[in-house]
Specification:
Length: about 110
């Protein structure tokens, strides 16, 4: 009988730790890094142009540009070429410059 309060206390402490607050923010972060349109891409490029850091912000760029080929192949090919340069950029200044140029084209 004395074990029941201890078990209940353990159960309550375990449930309190199951809030899942961090899981929601991870889902939101994953959604914001998943570029699915040229508008999303432009926004991400503008952010990169400000910070000079790409990180995971460029996830989905290539797929978005491949989709753009259906409506504007010339623009998509130019942006894909610029994306190769952006991914190869070795300094924050170069990253900012290329990202700004790409954002201006969208």
């Amino acid at each position: 009988m004395k074990a029941i309060p201890a078990i209940l206390l353990l159960f309550v402490m375990t449930c309190v730790g199951c809030g899942g607050g961090d899981a929601g923010s991870e889902d939101t972060a994953a959604e914001t890094n998943n570029i699915t349109s040229t508008a999303d891409m432009k926004s991400a490029l503008e952010s990169i142009a400000q910070t000079g850091e790409m990180g995971s912000a460029a996830m989905g760029f290539r797929e978005t540009l491949e989709g753009l080929k259906q409506s504007d192949a010339t623009k998509a090919d130019k942006l894909l070429s610029d994306l190769d340069k952006l991914e190869a950029a070795s300094s924050p200044a170069a990253t900012k410059k290329i990202a700004k140029q790409m954002a201006d084209q969208l």
